[in-house]
Every structure is written in structure tokens, then in C-alpha cells.
Amino acid sequence: MARRAVLVLTAALLTSSLTACSTSGPASSSPSEAKAGSGKTITLGFAQVGAESGWRTANTKSVQEAAKKAGITLKFSDAQQKQENQIKAIRNFIQQKVDVIAFSPVVESGWDTVLKEAKDAGIPVILTDRAVDTKDTSLYKTFLGSDFVKEGKSAGEWLTAAYANEQGPVNIVELQGTTGSAPANDRKAGFADAIKADGKFKIVASQTGDFTRAKGKEVMQAFLKSQKDIDVLYAHNDDMALGAIQAIEESGKKPGTDIKVISVDGIKDAFVAMTEGKINVVVECNPMLGDQLMELTKKVAAGESVPPRIETQEGVFPQDKAAAALPSRSY
Predict the structure, then answer these.
(1) CA gap 201, 156 in Å, rounded
(2) Cα dihedral 114, 119, 120, 121 in deg (nearest 10)
(3) Nearest of 194, 205, 256 to residue 229 by alpha carbon
(4) Mind listing the pLDDT tens digit for each residue in 210-268?
(5) CA dihedral 225, 229, 234, 236 (to 10 degrees)
(6) At residue 280, what are phi and psi to the nearest 5 degrees?
(7) Fewer CB atoms near the end CB (10 Å): N or C, the chain?
(8) Pick the residue with more confidence: 5 or 28?
């Protein structure tokens, strides 16, 4: 009987010890997991534009890898370049009661209703890469991304410097990004502002290429048929420029020589094209926003104040700097 009592007592002590260990935290938690104000793991809902370009693919990868590294649970949605899909995704995030919502708006306008729904639900919103057009800036906490007007201006400034000693006219065709999107609107405006002082620069055709190689090639083919004299191509992103280069070559012309090519983004394929003499200059737009986004997510989830606008650092790469910069391109 005495031995039986000892065994029972030992089992009771072991059970008590195991129970005490289990109350120290859930088995799924780890030191690296980011915590919201309540102590639970932060959940971020991210509504991406799509996968229309090499830049966007790199941006998505950056966000996914950074979330994993930061210990933030990521709920990801691909809108396939449709605003209605993004609005649906944001509403799903609200229903799921995520801690923070971040998204890159397909277009600038038409967001007030869904952003107010997020605000009413007490879920802070971070804009990444692209801004929205709204009078009520309280609908989002901050914007993280590039100055698209500055990018367009940098492209125009390179052109005016390159043709400073040339007689006019200089006929330009423009491949715009997705109609109504912030980068398309702003890169167009910045470029136009930079060249307007010199009358020899003329934009003879301008049309959307939806930020894709296939559409860039298609529209450039149309430009080559409708415009007898094209001196410069200005593309709002590298993928459209690379598609247009195919069209230029198929027409028997030499891209970078017969038609100067200016592009924006800075993907590796564009730098390869520069080393081959097919693109003359690339204005950088940095997609690697993941780490900064996760830091902002932690801060807004904790109720901390953040700057209303955070811009990324970017450069301008003319053709003669492409070879040296190519090995360091991470996207």
C-alpha cells in the first residue's frame, strides 16, 4: 500500500509539472513572432496589384519573405490588376479581423468607401508603392513607396541633357502604365514637366501598355506603323520597354540607336538590355519594400505614430553604368 501511495504521488507531481509547462505559452509561438498590443501574433492582410511585371514579382517576394522573417502572419491576395478584386480582398480582411491591412492600389480613385469600412472596424491601413486620391487622409496611416513624379522628371531631365546640343524636333512616343494608376499618372506628369520648356520635344503618341511586355510590344508595333519618325521611346516601366524593343527590332530598326529608349523600374533584364545597347537609361524604382513594411506594421499595430509618407531611395542609371551595376541587381 505504501509503495502504491508513492507511485500515485509521483504521477500527480509529474502531471502538475507538465501542466505548469503548458501554461507558459502556446506551442506554436516562437521568440521571433511579432505581437500586437494584446500580445497575440500580428496578422497582416496584403492586397497585391497582381503579377504583371518583374518588378511586381520582386515586390511580392520581398513582402512574403519579410513577413516570415518578422514573425508576422501574412494573408496575401492577388488582385490580377482589378480594383474590384482588391476591394473584395480588403473586405475579406476586415471580416477576418486582421490587425493591419496593406495594399498597392490598382488605380488612384474609388477607395473611400472600403477604407472607411476598415477605419470603422478599427483596422489601420498602410499604402505601399502606390497612393490613393482621397480628401480624407485619416483613412490610412501612412504611404510607403516611391515619388513617381520625381521618377518621370528624372527621365525627362536625362532626355533634355542628352539632346541639349541637338536641333529639333525630337519626336517621342510614350508607353503609359495602367490607366488611372498612380505611377502612370505621375510618371507622365513628371516627364511632361521636365521637357515642356524646350519646344523641340514633342510627344507624338501616348498610349497605355498596362505595364506588361506583351502589351508594350503590341502598342509599339502600332506606333511604328502610325508614326513615320520616332526618335525616343519613353516607357513607364521596364517590361513595356522590353516588349517594345522586340517590336523595334522586328521592324528593322536598332533600339538604343535608331530609337533612344528611356525606362523606369530597374529590373535585371533591363540592365542586361542596357549592356547590349538596347536601353539608354533606366530610372530606378525600388520594389524591395518588405522589411520597411513589416516595421511599419508592428508600429501601427501597437498604436505608435508613424510619418504620413516614407519614400524609398532610388537612382538613375545611364547606359555606361549598367555593366558595373548589373551584378548587384537583386530583382
Answers:
(1) 10
(2) 90
(3) 205
(4) 999 999 999 999 999 999 999 999 999 999 999 999 999 999 999 999 999 999 999 99
(5) -20
(6) -90, -35
(7) N
(8) 5
Closest CA to 146 of 287, 317, 306, 293: 287
DSSP assignment of 53-111 equals SHHHHHHHHHHHHHHHHHT-EEEEEE-TT-HHHHHHHHHHHHHTT-SEEEE--SSSSS-
Length of the chain: 331
> pLDDT tens-digit profile of 112-156?
999 999 999 999 999 999 999 999 999 999 999 999 999 999 999
Closest CA to 55 of 214, 229, 216, 238: 238
**Is the separation of the CB atoms in 73 and 40 below 8 Å?**
no
Task: List the beta bridge partners of residue 165.
Answer: none
**C-alpha to C-alpha distance for 3 and 151, rounded to whole angstroms:** 83
